[in-house]
Amino acid sequence: MSWFNRDARELPTLLPLPLTLADLEPGQHGVVLGITRENETLKRRLTALGMIRGAEIVLDWVAPMGNPCAYRLRGYRLSLRNEDARNVLLSAAWQPVPRPHTPRLHRP
């Protein structure tokens, strides 16, 4: 049977598709891989705001109707619409592991 006639379930999976900023869940972290070239104006704006390759970003808040969302990036909060967030590619997404609380020692 030719590869063109196979069912999609039979095809080998090569590489996972990159995530987009719109795929993050609240509290998840991601690392910026790049910005698509669909909208050059948006790409320039986001790059000027510090959304460059390797930047860590966190989904901080989602509006009640799901749009827009607020992201933490380089020490500030950035609000983006979902259609703009779909243009930002992420290389990873993870949920941070909470560290156990250790009381601070007070020195006299």
UniProtKB/TrEMBL annotation:
It comes from the Bacteria. Residues 19-92 form the Ferrous iron transporter FeoA-like domain. Keywords: Iron. GO terms for molecular function: transition metal ion binding. Pfam families: FeoA. This is Ferrous iron transport protein A. It comes from Rhodovastum atsumiense. The lineage of its organism: Bacteria, Pseudomonadati, Pseudomonadota, Alphaproteobacteria, Acetobacterales.
